[in-house]
Amino acid sequence: MPLQQLPPDNTFDHRRSGDGEHVGYIHMTDAGDFIPFDLLHRQRAEALELEEAENLLDDLGLAMFVEDWWLDLDGEQVPVLIREVRRDRVSVAFTASGAIAKAADMTTSIDILLPTDRLHQAKGMEA
User: Fold this and answer.
1) Which of the listed residues 16, 19, 21, 66 has the most CB atoms within 10 Å of its CB?
2) Among 88, 87, 106, 95, residue whose Cα is nearest residue 71
3) CA distances (Å), 115 to each of 5, 19, 43, 126, in order?
4) Res 38: pLDDT
């Protein structure tokens, strides 16, 4: 799906009912349908019924953040881990090299404004 701004009007935070964890946003359209957006402001489906949109975001949860990510930086793609997500930005840390799987260099991080087209999940991970 093309990069789209999270609509400022009629958009609300979605929290999983089981644990209250913030897992995305739902935009109510003028037609009364609901469009789910993940925490990175990526639209995850076309307009749905509210329960379907909530279930989709619940299923995505926070698991997407343990996947491999790539950041477009100076014409190259570099591996990063997502460190923190706020409503308007995401902080990523460069993956540390070496034998430790999924280790990040937390001394160096970059804040990226959302939405962004510079951050990509590893192949086969994006919905």
Assistant:
1) 16
2) 95
3) 6, 26, 10, 15
4) 94
